[in-house]
């Protein structure tokens, strides 16, 4: 799979050639940009448990494997 992702911290475009090229943990903003949805939609996916997440302090993080599973389920 080829994924194109505009990094939140870096304005350059990063191309992902496989799922393993994705960051191990993503922020909500990174998730939203990767899925090409709004930040509110990304929060909705996480808050309803559609995409599992973990809290690290006050920050929400999403594991790469959970994002990959979500995309695969969505394509089925």
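-> sequence recovered:
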């Amino acid at each position: 799979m080829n994924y194109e992702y505009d990094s939140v911290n870096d304005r350059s475009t990063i191309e992902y050639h496989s799922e393993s090229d994705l960051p191990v943990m993503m922020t909500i903003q990174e998730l939203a940009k990767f899925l090409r949805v709004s930040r509110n939609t990304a929060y909705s996916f996480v808050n309803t448990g559609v995409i599992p997440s973990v809290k690290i302090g006050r920050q929400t993080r999403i594991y790469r494997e959970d994002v990959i599973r979500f995309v695969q389920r969505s394509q089925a």
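The CA atoms of residues 25 and 36 lie 17 Å apart.
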